[in-house]
User: Fold these one by one.
Assistant:
Number 1:
Amino acid sequence: EPAPSDSERSFIAFDPLGVVLACMPWNFPYWQVFRCIAPALAAGNCVVLKHANNVTRCGIRIAEALREAGVPDGVFTMLVLRSDDVARVIADPRIAAVSLTGSTGAGASVASAAGQHIKKCVLELGGSDAFIVLEDADVAEAARVGVASRFLNAGQSCINAKRFIVVESVADAFENAFIDRVRQIRVGQPTDPETTMGPLARADLRDNIERQLRESVTRGARLRFGGERPGGRGFFLTPAVLTECDISMAAFTEETFGPLAAIARVRDEDEAVQLANHSEFGLGGNIWTRDRDRGIALAHRLETGGVFINGMTHSDPRLPFGGVRGSGYGRELHRFGIHEFVDIKTVWLPPQS
């Protein structure tokens, strides 16, 4: 890339770092891997994948697909190992950088291990995305998208809408429309074509959602729907909706990694922004308003890595993806995702005599 300076010629080179360790989670076992490794490979690096142990076969299929596509031997490697062994891999001098998608605790552990060896680290961690509905919003559409975003993958996504913050004047209409749509969700086996929401992945995830629900109700939240264990084999939980929530409640201050929606009411947009930013996380956010300029102005006030106005938060290869604060640092996708795994090198040549 040309870079004018006091020389006859200067430019910026983007050289690969070497081998990137990718530590990936189970909840989107294909997309999240490709979202990480595609920019790293495009930059000329090699990748070592440590996938979540409960989706090992997905990692094997990715390796097979890359080999069938013509990726040379050694450019992509998959390791099957325990999470406890990741620090030892990071310490290996052949590893130049590491990217992790996972929990905040896992991110802190990986960042610490990488920091001991001064190695580049990209972290995409948890989220507690706010979904702000202003008084001039299309309430019906906001409710439709809000339900889709909250209960996608049974609520097991870092960018699910989790905290619904609604201006008082439209709160009744939003809550009623939201609950009406939640009632239409059919919980069942993923192999059943009639199913619209499957089980949680593990028993402890369900237990934690139930704890957050109980503690929030104890503090004054109102359970409007769901939160029950239906019959059948699997870690099922009916989608739950809490209203009258506030910052004293676990459902509003912790990441809710499961099918639990927490709705709070506010007076105006200033209180909405204040409540949205009252979180250890900063991954994404939603704003619903018919005034696009108002939405853009509010987007600058949210302390997040991304804001979607009148639409569902999602990752798109054409846009950078990542968070701030407890949601991590660095970016995936877009050119910024490629630049995370290169040596941005200045090359300067003096004027010729």
Note: The chain has two domains: 9-125+323-349, 129-309.
Number 2:
Amino acid sequence: MTVLKIWKTHPNITIPKHQTAQSACFDLAFQGAGKRDYNGYSHMNKPFARPMGAAISIAPGERVLVPTGCIMDIPEGYSVRLHARSGTSLKQGLVLANAEGVIDSDYVEEVFVMLHNISGNAVTINQGDRIAQAELVKNVEYTLEETPARPLHKTKRQGGFGSTGITTKENMVVINIPETKEVKVETPVKRGRGRPKGSTKKK
């Protein structure tokens, strides 16, 4: 079995673990033990450094580097991918500012989670709160080389980004509906047996 080794930056750091036997990812928590401050950027892209405490408050639009207290010894041929947690994103509006974090095996520094508050309210996270999930991924070895010919179409896809969701003449289905002639239908008037009241009989 492949082993991902983790070194703690402080004795009070808790090593992450899988929550269930079949979990593909393990959770990373906010652990700032031994840190004096934390860094981030405001919604106006102004950098800031704030004192580290038992909790971190992230204002709307801010991006913050949240420490995990973990340094990973990733096996060669693997990488670790950081993903947002579903509940944290839905309920609090905290997502990863870089969409997905990629940690290569030759990175041997502390892992920080780049959180972005996309909600309209300030969000507070406490020490020990789970803020992201991490996944050990096996890399595919490949090389890059120039090709002398432009790649040909491999499927019916035409166009660029988002082209598969656009209706064009090529993928439009036309249904011909035969013309119908307007038919005027007259409703027959029912005639009574007797004459209307007030009528007189001609002599």
Note: Residues 77 and 143 are 14 Å apart (CA to CA).
